Amino acid sequence: MRRPVESAQYTSGQYARFARDHGVRLSVGRKGQCWDNAVAESFFATIKTELLDRQSWPTKALAHKAIFEYVEGWYNTRRRHSSLGYLSPAAYEATQETATERAVA
């Protein structure tokens, strides 16, 4: 039986060996599984739509500052996410910490 050729960089043997040799644990699932990247893909689509595509960015520094302010000032603290039960990431983390504290006590 012929072994299938892996053409995608993120699933290549060379890439996996490089990551392993440098102490990086890959989060890639099996071929054809898109779920492990769904949240990240949603985030990048959202930041493009809500921030990046709304104006031009004359310098990398201005874009970097705007992205930081968007993520820390809005996305993580106030924007609700369906994958988190319609809580913001900060609120979700707080509920998880509280649940963990109760479980330990």
TrEMBL record:
Pfam families: rve_3 (PF13683). It comes from the Bacteria. Gene3D superfamilies: Ribonuclease H-like superfamily/Ribonuclease H. Residues 1-97 form the Integrase catalytic domain. This is Integrase core domain-containing protein. It comes from Kibdelosporangium lantanae. The lineage of its organism: Bacteria, Bacillati, Actinomycetota, Actinomycetes, Pseudonocardiales.
